[in-house]
């Protein structure tokens, strides 16, 4: 049984993204006028287009929960977490993420995603959020942390926990059958 949990962009993300894009266009235009189309404006435009392009390719779209895994779909990226590897799933309040610092990440341009460093615990957290509300922390048995946002975090948590229980039961049954066949 598959379930989909969609990302919705909040008003703040839309305005921040529009503002950043307007600032980039204004900076490119100003550099073009000030340096008469020289190499500085060309370098700035090239680097800016590359960074914005990478941001656009990593925009989170939806979370798909299947019988065996949690898949976080971005425009070009797919992160898959096996259900039998999930250790904990818990809701996170906004005040609990105040120690997250973006390292290789987007902080407001089309969402919040990438690698963040938790300064309180010095752990790496992979963030796939379209807003700083309705957050869910998924920790796997390798202590990797994934912070996701969705419209209904309680439903996501209960769906992951029930799918995880089914996956673990299927694994136990398969191991019992294998042991009996020996």
Structure description:
- The chain is an alpha+beta fold and 182 residues long.
- The chain is 40% helix and 34% strand.
- It is built from three helices and ten strands.
- It has a six-stranded mixed beta sheet, with helices on one face. A four-stranded antiparallel beta sheet has the order 1-2-3-4, covered by helices on one side.
- A hairpin with a 4-residue loop joins β9 (135-140) and β10 (145-149).
- α1 runs antiparallel to α2 (39-57).
- The protein is elongated, with a radius of gyration of 20 Å.
- The model has no long low-confidence stretch (mean pLDDT 90).
Helices, by number, come to 3
The outline comes out as elongated
Q: Provide the low-confidence segments as ranges.
A: none
Q: Helicity range of the residues?
A: 25-40%
- Strand percentage: 25-35%
Assembly context of the chains: single chain
Arrangement of strands in the largest sheet: 5-9-10-8-7-6
H/E topology pattern = EHHEEEEEEEEEH
Structural class: alpha+beta
Distance between the termini: 32 Å
Radius of gyration: 20 Å
* Strands, total number: 10
Sketch the major β-sheet. 6 strands, mixed
Mean pLDDT over all positions: 90
């Amino acid at each position: 049984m598959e379930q989909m949990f969609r990302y919705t962009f909040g008003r703040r993300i839309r305005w921040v993204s529009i503002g950043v894009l307007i600032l980039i266009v204004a900076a490119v235009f100003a550099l073009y006028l000030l340096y008469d189309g020289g190499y500085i404006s060309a370098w700035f435009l090239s680097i800016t287009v590359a960074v914005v392009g990478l941001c656009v390719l990593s925009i989170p779209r939806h979370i798909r929960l299947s019988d065996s895994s949690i898949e976080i779909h971005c425009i070009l990226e797919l992160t898959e977490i096996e259900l039998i590897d999930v250790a904990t799933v818990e809701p996170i309040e906004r005040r609990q993420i105040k120690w997250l610092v973006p390292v290789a990440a987007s902080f407001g341009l089309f969402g919040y995603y990438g690698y963040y460093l938790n300064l309180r615990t010095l752990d790496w957290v992979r963030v796939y959020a379209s807003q700083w509300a309705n957050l869910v922390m998924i920790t796997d048995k390798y202590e990797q942390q994934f912070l996701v946002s969705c419209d209904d975090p309680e439903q996501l948590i209960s769906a992951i926990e029930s799918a995880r229980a089914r996956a673990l039961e299927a694994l136990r049954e398969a191991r019992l059958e294998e042991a009996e066949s020996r």
